[in-house]
Amino acid sequence: MSDTAPSLDQVRREIDEEVRAKRASGALPPSLERELDLAFDKFAPVGALDNDFGEALKAADRAAFVNVAVPTASSKPGVSFVKRLLRKAMAWYLNYLAQQVTAFGSATVRALRALGERLGAIEAQIGEVRPAVDDGSERPPVAPDLSEWVELVVARMNGARGRVLHAECGDGAMLRALTAAGVDAYGVDPRGPLVDGAVAAGGDAWPDDPLAHLGAVADHGLGGLILSGCVDRLSLARQRSLVELAARKLAGGAPLVLIGTDPRAWERVTPALEADLAPGRPLHSATWQHLLERAGFAGVAVTDGRVEGLERVPDSAAGAAVINANLDKLGQALFGPATFAVAAVRST
Amino acid sequence: MKVAFVVPRYGVEVTGGAENAARMLAEHLVAEGVWDAEVITTCAQDAMTWEDVYQPGPEVVNGVPVHRFRSKAGRDPGFHPYSGRLLTSPSQATVEEADTWIDLQGPLCPDVVDAAVASDADVVAFYPYLYYPTVRGLPLVGARGIMHAAAHDEAPIRLPVFPSVFTTAAGLVFHTYGERALVQRLFPVADRPQIVLGLGVDQRHGDPTDARTALGIGDRPYLCCVGRVDEQKGCVALWRSFLAYKERRPGPLALVFAGQVVDRPPDHPDLIVTGPVDEDTKWGLMAGSLGHVSPSAMESFSIVMIEAWMAGVPAVVNGRCDATVEHCVRSGGGLWFSSYGELEAVIDRLVGDAALRARLAAAGRHYADANFSWPVILARYRRFLDGVVARAVGRRGAT
Q: Which residues of B touch A28 (CB under 8 A)?
């Protein structure tokens, strides 16, 4: 195999361009495509066209035409003749009805098309002002280091009555610690390569968007919830949605631990690409505390992470005591804790 | 440890995706010897009537203990008109109407449900979501009950009887990520233990030269389509499209249909219709082709597509089919079409670019080996079953 061989995506793009060019040049007669595509559409799944408005509209357009030319073929002698006779005799009546139904169908499709165009224009305008949706594909698949929080998380989740979800689970390091402690834990992360690693290491992990996944969980279905990563990048509206979803999906009395990045440390500890392309920004621990309490969580407590200060001079050095005391003050003022954990319990 | 498979019909004579999948899995589990397996089923062979054909009672099928029970009723004559009316707007149906739909569809087999409940198996696995045994039995087996849903994006899945079935399952087994996404879109089950398992495939070898000779293909290049030749499988649309292609691209290329013929293609020098073929011939036919075409939009997995990759050829699939497109995207081993124009361009590429064919075939082969060889499937399934048992034990211990 050659390294210069085109990727599947590239082959698909070339095919798309080739087909577009053929259609534009008339080399692909629309009537031919329409007839053959209809034959395939006849047995398409119910929702196959649902996600593509253009395709759904095309299908509606095709179906708008009511054909009164009823098939008359028959294997029985004489029946075909009778069918043809009936078709001819009833043509005046069926044509009259079919014309009205077809006209209604065509008018409806035209109205839908106009509506679609207006909606498209609004979507384009909204797209310019809204934050981008974070689908994980633009973030490097680098596993987060949550090692300093393992002890706290395991202690909180131990004895959870039901499954515990970690969103986003990265390479599954936290899942492994929880599983080792006897917790029935699983995780989601939109970054496929990280999930593959988590699964390969024996974890129960899925390449899902955290919010979408939470939305598909049964109400009060979770025995515990750990939120990390996504909490720092979501837009404010989605951060609020996340808290509301957490409250709805956790069983009464179930623990939650949210691991966030301090906004003052965000620029320092987050890779430039990830920070620049994030749809939102991290919230302060006090803000999470406020949102969780409002959503019905009890016992909300914040724990600060460790401070990575400036390197201290050896105690044997001249003036070490004074220098180190000043370095500690400087470190605290400049850096502060990079991360924090907010632990809470869903009120019963 | 033991798993009991509960299926509406079972036997070597039964041809059906879900039923075959259950049988293959049960037979391989028993052969492996780590988990025991048994089957609880009806005496039916035909999914259109559910008529009792097999003798009731215990028997052993390819090493697997099977317990058969008579049905109280098969498919009711009034089912189709009732279904036609109900499925025009399935989500508007009442639970009572949906319950009636389940009963009329058949097989109405309370004895199967009773046997599933009474089974001493550690896990009771129901296949597929659609029928009476699963709908009535799954809610009764508690934390032992898992479901191999074999869910399709079809009208019945929107009937209001199914949310309680899906949310009752202690575990869900899917064929593809697309099936999982569909189920999660329709039911709040994301927190349920689940696995995307797929289906195991036994690789065989066939000689392309022998297949060409046996099927009268000669030395012309060809694409093949293996499986039931049926309009519902997209075969009519495929042969019409292929003949249109050949009018625009005259040449020696042929399309070979191999499998049971339900809808016969027209007599045409570029269409070769073989009817059913033996396994050696099938593998030889696939190995000698330029690619395998899967025109169906309604596949839940497509074993034959995985077989084609194991035979070393690329795949061409219908872009309307989530499952087969997913295989292509995840493997990089195939191309898909959503219009005649795309099909024409895809065939042009496959016929004219040997390097692309080789690249697609190699990627598909790697994907098939890594995911769907039986040792891989069994190891993953056993681990999933172990988890179900552990949770069931934990739940019993907690109460």
A: 340-341, 344
Reference B255, options B212, B292, B297, B308; nearest CA is: B292
Task: Indicate yes or no: CB of A41 within 8 angstroms of CB of B320.
Answer: yes
Let me know: does B253 contact B350? Beta carbons within 8 Å: no
Q: How many domains does chain B have?
A: 2
What is the tens place of the pLDDT at every residue in A33-42?
Answer: 888 888 888 8
Three-state DSSP class for residue B223: strand
What type of residue is B162? F
pTM of the predicted protein model: 0.81
Q: What is the pLDDT of residues A136-176, one digit of tens each?
A: 666 777 888 999 999 999 999 998 999 999 999 999 999 99
Nearest CA distance, A8 vs chain B (angstrom): 6
Instruction: Find the CB nearest B191 among A16, A22, A222.
Output: A222
Domains of chain A: 8-129 (no CATH), 147-346 (3.40.50.150)
**A264–chain B nearest CA distance, Å:** 35
Same domain, B393 and B264: no
CA separation for the pair A94, A83 (Å, rounded): 14
State the burial class of residue A54 (Cβ atoms within 10 Å of its Cβ: 0-12, 13-18, 19+).
exposed
Contact residues, chain A, for B312 at CB < 8 Å: none
The β-bridge partners of B40 are B6, B67
Nearest CA in chain A to B317: A40
Q: What ipTM was assigned to the predicted interfaces of this complex?
A: 0.81
Q: Given B191, B339, B391, which is nearest A218 (Cβ)? A: B191
